[in-house]
Every structure is written in structure tokens, then in C-alpha cells.
Write a structure and sequence with these properties.
Length: about 325
């Protein structure tokens, strides 16, 4: 910090990590923000807070879970995610991002990664045991996991935690951009609506002044009731007020910067992440605590950018030696063609 920086009451941006995060945020949301004088000092406090949020989330994601063949049968979470150990091995072996990374790490014997999957609670009817009797029409909830994918492969759990933190922060920036773009679209739609209301009022005003080239007798039947005109005027006033409130952050870059700072101050609203706990039986049906079953915990996410998605996240570890050779995978694909 400079000798007189304290006079401005600004946050120091000496941290290389903070500076890198600010640069990432500006590039992803709006590169024009870099032209604002003192933008780094204004963003530094809220960016530091957002990074801390991302670190906490990265630490709370369950794992790293040993996903090796020896552990699959004994781990309820792995059994819930993968119906068979061979399914797990096939999915892990077909991840190009992992294979490409390991080619650069020939000495690696184990890798760590984020495992993501689309998650769904399926409601239906099934067979359950109640009071020592089987019911075939009982309402049941089953957990279903599809479209498994590995992200951020690395050879150390500490590296995975670091990469996860930055991946979460980048997504915070993307979510900020999404909401900013959505606000611009809504503002444009409001302007169109206001233009339409003004046109309707102008049309009726011309008719009242006798400026329409139609007979008075024909007009009388089509003339709107006074209350209809009042409704149009009220709608116009409400739309103008809503436009003014919504467009304030879009007046200039400084207003947009203030809006971004306000949104980043509560990152949990931008990045909807929560830890879910379930108790399930051996067929992935949710059961109550008094029933035989296994307790599961995983991280659930729901995001908008770049498209609406939801799913679960886990940290996993996997032996490199258990990955199927690429030539074997190619042969399997050839048999399917």
C-alpha cells in the first residue's frame, strides 16, 4: 500500500491472487470496466470475500472419495452413483480431459478430480416393507444419477482444492454476467412495452380530437370506455417507474460496477450450492432413519450460465492403473459401430 493510500479509504490489492481474480472478473463480465479509475481498489474487498466463499465451498464438497475397484462394493455412495463397478471404470476411462492430463503426468499412479452427475429425485410407486408385510403400491422416492463426468484432474488433493476454488469463482463471474444480460433484456422488453402503450394512448388521443378520417358514427361504437384509457395511463406510469428502477445500473459503467459489487457481496445468491443428505436402501430408494439403509452426503448445485443446469459434485481419487487402455476403448467402440 502506498504512503497516502489510507486517505482514500480503499482496500489494498497487493495480493497476487486478488489481482488475478479481479482481472478474471473484469474480462468475463465487461472488459470496459478496466477503464474506470480505481476499479481494482473498489472490487478488492468484495472479490476477497467471494474467494473466501469459494474456498469454503471447495472444502465442503465431500471427498476425496476412493473410487477404486476395491472400494466400490463397500462404499454406499459409489454403489448409488454406479450400478456396477464396470460402469464406473468405463466412465472414468472415457474422460478425454483426464487422459490428456495424464499423458503429461507419466509418473502419476493416482489422480484426483471433481465428479459431477445430473441428479434427479424420481417419485413413483414401489414395493416396501411395512409392519413386516410387503406393500406393492407404496409411494417411493428414488435417486437417479446420469451423465457422469470428471473435471479438473490433478495429482494432488491440494491442487484440486485450489483449482476448484478458481473454477467456482469463474462461475460466479459467469453468473454475474448472466444476470446482467438478463437485466438488459428485461429493460429492452420494458421499453418496447412502453412504446406500445404510448402508441395506444396517442391513437385514442387523436380520435378524441377528431383527427381520424372516419365518420363520427362509426367511431362512437369503437370508442374505448374512460376506464380503459385510465388503465392504459396507469400501466404506462407503472412501466416507466419499473424501467427507471431496472435501468439505473445500466446508465454508465460506474453504475454497473456498483451493481456488480452489490451482487458479489452475497455470492450464495449467485451460486446456488447446498449440501444434501439422504438415507437410501440398496436400490436407491429414500428411506426414513428408522429403516435399514446408508447415509449419503453430496454437494448439489444449480446454475444459470451458460445454460440452466443442476447436479451433484464429489471429490474422487482413482488409480491410474485401473483406467482401461485407449486401444481397448477404441476396440469396444468399433464393436458398437
Amino acid at each position: 500500500m502506498g504512503l497516502f493510500d489510507w486517505l482514500a479509504g480503499r482496500h489494498a490489492t497487493d495480493s497476487p491472487e486478488t489481482a488475478a481474480a479481479i482481472d478474471c472478473l473484469i474480462k468475463l463480465v465487461d472488459p470496459r470496466l478496466a477503464a474506470i479509475s480505481g476499479v481494482s481498489a473498489q472490487l478488492a474487498p468484495v472479490v476477497d470475500s467471494a474467494l473466501d466463499f469459494c474456498r469454503r465451498v471447495a472444502e465442503e464438497i465431500p471427498g476425496p472419495l476412493d473410487a477404486s475397484s476395491a472400494r466400490w462394493r463397500d462404499d454406499p455412495l459409489l454403489c448409488a452413483l454406479f450400478a456396477r463397478n464396470d460402469d464406473l471404470r468405463q466412465i472414468f476411462s472415457r474422460q478425454d480431459e483426464v487422459r490428456d492430463y495424464l499423458e503429461e503426468q507419466p509418473a502419476a499412479t493416482r489422480f484426483y478430480a471433481l465428479l459431477g452427475a445430473v441428479f434427479e429425485e424420481r417419485k413413483g410407486f414401489g414395493v416396501v416393507l411395512e409392519n413386516e408385510a410387503l406393500r406393492s403400491d407404496a409411494a417411493v422416492t428414488s435417486l437417479n444419477f446420469t451423465r457422469h463426468r470428471l473435471f479438473l484432474p490433478c495429482v494432488a488433493p491440494e491442487t484440486l482444492a485450489h483449482e476448484t476454488t478458481w473454477a467456482l469463482f469463474r462461475h460466479l463471474a459467469l453468473e454475474t454476467l448472466y444476470h446482467l444480460a438478463q437485466m438488459k433484456e428485461e429493460t429492452a422488453a420494458r421499453r418496447e412495452g412502453i412504446a406500445l402503450l404510448r402508441a395506444q394512448l396517442a391513437y385514442h388521443g387523436q380520435r378524441e380530437a377528431g383527427e381520424m378520417a372516419v365518420s363520427m358514427a362509426e367511431d362512437a361504437a369503437a370508442e374505448p370506455a374512460p376506464e380503459a384509457l385510465e388503465t392504459l395511463k396507469r400501466q404506462l406510469a407503472e412501466s416507466q417507474a419499473a424501467l427507471k428502477a431496472a435501468s439505473e445500473p445500466l446508465q454508465n459503467l460506474e453504475d454497473t460496477l456498483d451493481w456488480i459489487i452489490e451482487r458479489l457481496a452475497d455470492p450464495a445468491k449467485l451460486l446456488n450450492i447446498q449440501m444434501l443428505n439422504y438415507r437410501i436402501n440398496n436400490v436407491n430408494q429414500v428411506v426414513t432413519d428408522d429403516r435399514p439403509g446408508a447415509d449419503l452426503r453430496f454437494c448439489h448445485f444449480s446454475v444459470h450460465a451458460p445454460t440452466p443446469r443442476q447436479g451433484i459434485l464429489l471429490r474422487v481419487a482413482y488409480p491410474v492403473g485401473e483406467l482401461l487402455p485407449r486401444r481397448q476403448l477404441a476396440a469396444q467402440m468399433a464393436q458398437l459401430l
